[in-house]
Design goal:
globular; about 160 residues; binds zinc ion; three-stranded antiparallel beta sheet; 1 helix; five-stranded antiparallel beta sheet; single chain; 8 strands; mainly beta
Amino acid sequence: MEGISILNGKYAVSMDMYPLQDKNYNMVYKFYDNLKEGRFTTTKCTDCGARSFPPRIICPECLSENMEWVDLPSEGTVLVVAEQEAGVPLGFQAPLIHAHVDLGGELTYLGRVQNCKAGELKEGDKVKLVVIPIEPVPADGKKGAVIQHERVFFAFEKVK
Ligand SMILES: [Zn+2]
């Protein structure tokens, strides 16, 4: 991902919009492990069956900690398109294209659509999940050691 590299090794956690994804720092790290395999997943409560997105470590319905990982559809239909001209985050070029996407009737998700020009995406278009490598983040390991955590994130792309 461009943008973070302009910090030239001066890692500023407050400007990094991607979370730490390692199991040492993040209890939903499996979401990112699954993303690395191209799977879009979330958690489902094995006690009451409630499914949440984003993934949770505790069920918001019954407070159970018994959660399992389930797959979400990786293709969807665009419900609404928004083109962001101002306030685009560092490293991204305007306009940013966002879409509210219906994922197979199971979930609606508001997310970024990449490799898409202004005016190109319309209501009813199909989009698919794409997994994007993100620059590794330097993190302190044992004294003096710097660990580079591999990271990924996701966006959608128009199905052509
Ligand atoms: Zn539950």
